[in-house]
């Protein structure tokens, strides 16, 4: 991992190309179905089913228990779906946040560091804040978050 105790261009570039890129790749892979047939939370939350399972419940395979609440199957199904949807929304928001962080690091490296020096010390703070302003929006979230 890059040494970020001194924020020079080389350290930022190493961080972006390795640690951040690996994290973004891992985050994207979490949101995809496994090649061995394990469905992702994203697929569960969206009700996406492989063609082999057409007509089955997309959230839980608990058979007739989902038909009514005699054994609380319907309640269980609703709770699982609600939880899966919440986690999927968090993962989606994290994907947006870290994608923006990656874009902003690239902009910082290519635009500001190349024109104003090799460290962040020589960069106009206002320009740096302008580049990173979308991160504030990502962290603030929606009213529903």
Relevant terms:
single chain, 5 helices, 145 residues, mainly alpha, elongated
Task: Characterize the structure shown.
The protein contains 5 helices and no strands. The chain has a domain of 100 residues. 60% of the residues lie in helices and 0% in strands. The relative contact order is 0.13. This is Type VII secretion system-associated protein. It comes from Streptomyces sp. SID12501.
Low-confidence blocks of residues = none
Please tell me how large the radius of gyration is.
22 Å
Main sheet summary:
none
Overall 3D shape = elongated
Distance between the termini: 32 Å
- Give the strand tally: 0
Q: Tell me the series of helices and strands, N- to C-terminal.
A: HHHHH
Helix/strand class: mainly alpha
Helix content: 55-70%
Individual helix count: 5
| Residue-averaged pLDDT | 83
Strand proportion? under 5%
Protein name: Type VII secretion system-associated protein
InterPro entries: T7SS_assoc-like
Organism: Streptomyces sp. SID12501
């Amino acid at each position: 991992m890059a040494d970020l105790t001194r924020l020079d261009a080389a350290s930022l570039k190493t961080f972006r190309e390795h640690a951040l890129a690996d994290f973004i790749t891992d985050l994207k892979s979490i949101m995809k179905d496994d090649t061995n047939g394990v469905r992702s939370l994203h697929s569960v939350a969206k009700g996406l089913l492989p063609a082999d399972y057409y007509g089955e419940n997309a959230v839980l395979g608990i058979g007739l228990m989902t038909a009514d609440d005699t054994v609380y199957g319907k309640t269980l199904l609703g709770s699982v779906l609600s939880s899966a949807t919440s986690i999927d929304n968090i993962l989606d928001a994290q994907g947006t946040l870290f994608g923006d962080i990656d874009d902003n690091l690239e902009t910082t490296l290519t635009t500001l560091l190349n024109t104003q020096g090799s460290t962040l010390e020589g960069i106009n703070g206002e320009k740096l804040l302008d580049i990173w302003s979308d991160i504030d929006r990502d962290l603030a979230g929606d009213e529903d978050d």
